[in-house]
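In this supplementary section we document a worked example of the pipeline. Step one takes a protein sequence of length 460 as its only input; no multiple sequence alignment statistics are reported here. Step two produces a three-dimensional model, which step three serialises into structure tokens for compact storage. The input and output of this example are shown verbatim.
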Amino acid sequence: MKQILDYADTLMEATYFLGYAWAADKFCKKILGASKKNEWMFILFSFVGCLLLNIAGRKYSMPYILSVMLNHILFMGLVLLLFQAGREKKILAASMLMTFVSLAENFCVSFLSCLTLFFKHTVKKIPEPFFSEWEIIGLIDCAGLCFAILCIYWMSRHLEHVFFGKPGKWYYLLAVPLLMLIAVVDVAGWGACNGIMVRSGGNMGLYYDQIFSHAGICVLTGLSLPAAGFYVLGMDRIYLEQEKSSRYHSQIAVYKMLEEQYSQSERLRHDMKNHIIALLGLFESKEWEKMGEYLRNMEKSGVKDGGEITGNKAVDALLYQKRKRAEKENVKWECDVQIPKVCCINEFDLCVLFGNILDNALEACERLGDDNSSFISIQAKPVKKCFLLEVKNSMDRREKYTKGFTYKENIKGHGIGLKNVDDVVGKYNGAMNIEDENGIFVISILIPLNDAVCDIKQAV
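The serialised model returned by step three reads:
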């Protein structure tokens, strides 16, 4: 009879392993990417490896802590070998899976164990209740696995963005506390397996010792599970805020430099009459070397041709730089920007709007390659008591705009540009709309130009 129970136990646990391997594979494929062949290899090796470790543990009485460590090593190794992303991402993905699954499963098993013991003691009047093999394997462990798979599904829905746009060291730093948390839970499980249980105190009996032990693990894992989720999401939020702040201030420095260069060019144009007189004097006196040196100094001073005239020097300088980049890439440029003389929007906020939107538009056009139909159209003007900015650009018809997704090869700045735009729009109580259809991307921004907005600018 015992042998039949052992076979049934092994078969049931094999089913659990298969379900866990399938759910883990779906998560890793979505986050890291993998070929169909590697997917099946991951599921097969995970299933067979866990099953063999389970059988070896039963046959040779393998210590609990060793069995758990070997399972973790097997899982981490398969993720590193069979999925496609960088090593740091694969380590973080494996760490998150092991942490959340272990916490979720232990919490569910401990909670249901407490309920089962309470039911047997209170309703069935059993003084010192114990669990049968079928209760542990057939019901409690099955519920724990289902809860763990539900946790993996939640991770795939809410933690996907954590794996994009970060430097490699960030993933390692995020993975270390998660691995330490796994170690704490494993040590607690090892202690329970070796009879190190939370005692009720006095002579309350084995029933209360079991209740307090399961309740202790339930509290530990129940608090650790949301804490791990808040930690991952919090670290992601902190990184994004730091990146936005850093990029915003670097943009301000660039826009100040552009405005200074543009002002210098304007002063040079204003003094052009005097420069012509000086050059004519050098020409008439045949002082060719001095004349050449004079012309070189003028070139260094930054004479520019055909800049945009918008009513704001910083925006003029910015549009000039973007237009030059568009011309270099053979992108058709259409620009009609009218900024009111009395504009309540901070000029650096204007540059954040124009700069980030035009950078994205230029990158979309560059991805089209040598397509002569690529274009960028910019329209901005006051409409009644609002400032309307609309930018249209061509894009690859195969691409679809999805919030939080990027087509950039270098994804360190993933999503930061539009986040900065969204922050500026929110700062002035404006509205933003994004559409893409038939290979054309359109972003429209409407910001009210009223006294309340002016108050915002003065407060900043």
